[in-house]
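Posting for a labmate who doesn't have an account.
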Amino acid sequence: MFSPLRPSDTPIQTAAPFGFTGPCLRHARDEEVFGEGEAAEHVYQVISGAVRTLRTLRDGRRQIDEFHFAGDYFGIEAGDLHRVSAEAMTDTTVRMVRRAALSQLAAKQVDVARILFRLTVEGLQRSQDHVLMLGRKTARERVVGLLIDLVERTGADGELDIPMTRQDMADYLGLTIETVSRTLTQLQADGIIAIPTTRHIVLRDGAALRRLAN
């Protein structure tokens, strides 16, 4: 288990993406990586653990816009401020790359510019898929789609160790926590999944799961 580091602690220096050497900071579960409205001075990469990015309404309700896993980048902004907050979902290590240095490198090296363009387009595509899911899919389709997405993104082979809580899932899917729990229970009753523990899901019938998603 990782020991949380405060910003004042000495960061770990490791080889960063795009040829930089950047600091890696450890964040404890539920610790904020950056806040909505803060200066967007860095681009981030998840080294281990998982991160959620979200916006919070004035009444305290959350909308999670994305989950980020090992290898994923986040915090790429068009403007000077972060439009979302980022929080560790588990004990997590995150690498920081200074945005100004990255922009300078992209201006000189075409391959770096291409990587940034690809990451931006991939983020846009996932946002478009998320909007479609929220606007047109049933509760069951949303939950099933999330499970399939987690399998594909984490490389799980029939079993999922999920870092997010049921509330995280609900706030991403635009559902209540009761609906998420009820849907998972029904999938288990149908023999499609098994839930040995809250954070561990076994996919017993992957083909049936995909049919439900489609």
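Reply:
Got it, the structure tokens are right above this. Residues 1-15 have pLDDT under 50 and may be disordered.
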